[in-house]
Amino acid sequence: MNGEAGRAGPLPAHRVLIVGGGFGGLYAARRLGKDDRVSVTLVDRRNFHLFTPLLYQVATGAVSPGDIAQPLRSILRRQRNTTVLLGEAVGVDVDKREVRLADGGPLAYDSLIVASGARFSYFGHEGWAKDAPGLKSLDDALEIRRRILIAFEAAEREHDAQRRAEWLTFVIVGGGPTGVELAGSLAEIARDTLRRDFRSIDTRSARILLVEALPRILPTYPADRSASAGRQLERIGATVRTGTRVVDIDDHSVGIERPDGTQERIPARTVLWAAGILASSFVATVATATGAPTDRNGRIIVGPDLTVPGHPEILAVGDAAVQPWKRDKPVPGVAQGGIQGGKYAAGTILARLSGETLPPFHYQNRGDVAVIGRLAGVTDIPWLGPFGRQSGFPAWVLWLTIHILYLIGFANRIVVVVRWGWSFFTRGRGSRLITGAPLLPPIEEPEPPA
User: Fold this and answer.
1) Distance CA 112, CA 116 (A)
2) 251 and 130: one domain?
3) Which end of the chain has fewer CB atoms at under 10 Å, N or C?
């Protein structure tokens, strides 16, 4: 319907502003792009949509950055009612209904969808970030890849046994899906991919340590799936420590507190962070401007229709919001949460234009899949019944199929399938390039004799 009967002409298009081109923002834009009653503007500080579930594969050299990213303009180019802008949203005026960008000019809206995502939280220890990078962006993935490869290069050149052991010790903080998948990939790199590449070191001696403060890894999975993941990690050479809290991180070591309260210092030159999230700064800006309640992670507590309390024109989705699900459990921070939230937010706006009201948001749990290594993984897919709780090879096949289906762009799917096929048969990882700075390992001079 392009207009209303009895009008002299069509109504002005309803202006929808979407902040964030992740899963929530992109899927909202795609649904709104089918209706010419709306004019859509999508703003993101990156010019591409990133398939974040495969970020760890970039970080561990399995795929290249371009394989899991697609330019937003390319994805939305057929939508004539959609404009993509490269910019960073830093302010909002809820009375004027305007969003301010970092480089100036405000963008007006009739409806605003906040989908700006989240970043890792260091629980008040922001100084740890320089020594323990998280994995939320392509830049993060490339930095982690650089640090991992540099560590092996440094160990190859290091003649002091103690310092060599430091370089060959990798600590991953956080036993959620990202941490588990990183630990599994690192173990595979050390024991398969690199074992014939070096002459002075045996990469299979690398120590991969996964540290989780809660009693078990993959805490959102059923207990038996968590236990299976732990066994599979141990089988490929990683060590899992649950109930263990990180108390300090520096460039040479990690301090941990065991379940019995005793503390230990682990010499390690490579620490990766995969614990806790914090909503983006723009989410905090919106919460302050609207007086909306937030949870401890800074996410806006939205209503059943995903709107910000007191501001029905503003909707928050994905990692920007505490989306309602079960009585004591919000929607988990996974891709499906963003996809379904984005689609619902777009549907709510279109329903209003038709004078209709949608039923409250209902999250459909499509299940969780975590891959641990080659032919290893765990699944928790309730709608498949007993077949939805798999381990090992069946879980690995399900993971591969699901991720290929959801990759944006036909060409990306073909490239990733080819790369995975090559990696499967050769046990290699073709994207082991050291980029960024520094390019050389910081080798220390041996201390002179006393």
Assistant:
1) 12
2) yes
3) C
pLDDT over 70 (residue 5): no
**pLDDT for the residue 448:** 56
261 with 209, same domain: the answer is: yes
In a domain, 6, yes or no: no
Q: Give the other-Cβ count within 10 Å of 434's Cβ.
A: 17
Q: Are residues 143 and 27 in the same domain?
A: no
Its pTM stands at 0.89
Compute the distance between CA of residue 138 and CA of residue 151 in angstroms, rounded to an integer. Answer: 20
Which of 227, 249, 275 represents a domain boundary (last residue)?
A: 275
Tokens of 210: 């996964």
Active site residue 181: yes
Of 253, 186, 183, residue with least CA distance to 211? 183
Side chain identity at 371, as an amino acid letter? Answer: V
* Domain count along the chain: 2
Contact 208, 183 (CB under 8 A): yes
Structural domain boundaries, residue 214: 126-275
pLDDT tens readout for residues 187-196 = 999 998 898 8
Sheet with 207-211, strands from edge to edge, namely 238-241, 207-211, 169-173, 270-273
- Considering the domain architecture, whether residues 263 and 309 belong to the same structural domain is answered as no
